[in-house]
TrEMBL record:
InterPro entries reported for this sequence: MFS (IPR011701), MFS_dom (IPR020846), MFS_Efflux_Transporters (IPR050189), MFS_trans_sf (IPR036259)
Gene3D superfamilies found in the cross-reference section: MFS general substrate transporter like domains
Protein name: MFS transporter
PROSITE patterns (alphabetical): MFS (PS50850)
Record key words, sorted: Cell membrane, Membrane, Transmembrane, Transmembrane helix
Major facilitator superfamily (MFS) profile domain sequence ranges: 9-388
Highest taxon, organism lineage: Bacteria
Matching CDD domains: MFS_arabinose_efflux_permease_like (cd17473)
SUPFAM superfamilies on file: MFS general substrate transporter (SSF103473)
Membrane topology category: Multi-pass membrane protein
Primary location class: membrane
Amino acid sequence: MDPLLRDWRSWGLMFAAMLTIMSNATITPSLPGLEASFADNPLAPLLTRLLITAPSLLVAIVAPFAGILTDRLGRRRPLLAGLIVYAVAGTAGLYLTSLEAILASRLLLGLGVAAIMTAQAALVGDYFAGPARGRLMGYQMAATNIGGLVFVTAAGALAATDPRLPFAIYGLAALLFPLLAAILPEPVRFAPDPAQGTPADDAEPGWRLTVTIMTVAAGLTFVIFYAVPTQVPYHLRNEGLADPRAAGVVMGAMMFSAALTSVISGWTRPWLGRIGTPVTGYLLLAAGFGGLAIGHSLGLAMASTALIGAGLGFCMPTFVTTALNVTPARRRGLVTGLITAAIFLGQFLSPLASQPLATHLGYAGAFRIGALAFVALAVVLTVALRRRPPHVTRPLRQH
């Protein structure tokens, strides 16, 4: 067994990461039902889609500042405060009486997500180093998607009874609060790394450029990727698959696949490198979006989202791991905050970009554009990283 899996801190970080990633997609199966429940609101089609991505707006605004605070004040206090906000705001959709009020609660949820995500990602860098850090990011992604598989599938079943019931799933944060408080200690800040004999905040030359590339890539990836949770339920209904459970199993296939490949990516990254790993992911994402564009059955939709999940399993851990590996320890909170902001800004902008495409080109046309965009991102990322100075690119395969 990997020693990481015998470390309680690893499990605590996986649980925390699970909360942040599931914050948006959990209520995906509820969207058609919520739209029908508020049919008298002329903005219901847009507002229901924004319920998925509204937390992302607050995360995008707040995460860099949350990162700065975690660098100055420590990791535990933002993490634990974020759990409280997450539980209160996440479950508010159970009882609020208007779409506008639910949307406001989703924005508040983003505040909790920003605090949790920046603190837990910085803790990954504080607790672990080298290949272990990359493997833990893969395990985190796996735990996130296994949890997402369970929660989104459960949300589909709950939404078939009442579209508000999936909001109860956010109460999990309250249950995790005492556990995470017990097993995630405040790290010793910037202590020397005995294994290397050098200060733990050593940075790779040119680290700011690498962080910028990873931040931009993460944001653009999620602008395109988030067309899946925001548009697939409507695409399935358009194809005659109106049962919310269909959306649940399709999203579940994506999360199960992402769980498997994110573990694999942690072990294959030393061979694929920081270029090959995300490029592999982009090509899988392109294949999955292409499958959604041509598919007309539940089976093909599941196969396509499985490819999308596999692609995300290669890309997502790479963005954060690469940035943490090159960044000085004293800047880890800020850097994780910037990447977090980019990811969630991409999620927020996604329906604003995909909805006009779906309206004018149809769902198949929108997914086809997404496939082409991922191929373009693979090319651009390869060129951007290969153009770096030789003294920076030499250790690529070690990260």
